[in-house]
Design a protein that fits this description.
Length: about 55
């Protein structure tokens, strides 16, 4: 099986067989922009508790 492992800004293509593993290629990992953090939305206010008088 082949796997691509990203480590320290490098992509390592690794081929794994039963009992052995070998690095097939090493490339620079693409630089990606940091993910945008969504703005938090305030939770709706809780409904008031019903009064106990009947």
């Amino acid at each position: 099986m082949k796997y691509i492992v990203n480590l320290n800004g490098k992509n390592y293509e690794v081929e794994v067989e039963e009992g052995s593993a070998s690095i097939v290629s090493v490339t620079d990992a693409p630089v990606s922009a940091p993910a945008a953090v969504p703005a938090s939305v305030p939770a709706p206010a809780a409904a008031p508790a019903p009064s106990g008088s009947g």
